[in-house]
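User: Fold this one for me? It's HTH marR-type domain-containing protein.
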Amino acid sequence: MREFYDGITFRTNVVAKKASLGLQHALERFEVTPEQWSVLNVVDQKAPISQRHVADFAEKDAPTVNRIIDVLVRKNLMTKMVDEKDRRITLLSLSIEGKQKVQLIRNVVEETCAHFYQGISDVELATYLDILARIENNLE
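Assistant: Here's what I get for HTH marR-type domain-containing protein.
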């Protein structure tokens, strides 16, 4: 049984690394890392959103998200504004340039993922996602 588990763990790590590298290569032309993309994607879907909530949705720690946000603001892809209801909260949104770039990136990410999942049915992917969720739950 140990060899079976070792094989699953090894193959999972190999696939995760290859997928991450494939996504990184797809994003290079946009000068955006996969980590930056995860933050841009959350902000695109949830804006205006606080930095704390971005960290929660992106499943990253707050200092990492803060560094990523600073980079994205410097790249003029994201804007910050103070929440009118609670001045202690900074809300994030995409800039006009950020919205345009996110749409281009989203198209490339979808093409890249379609390549990753080629030949695998939606039912198989749903089963895979369910299994991953159960494994993740066991890890927590």
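One thing worth pointing out: The mean pLDDT is 94.
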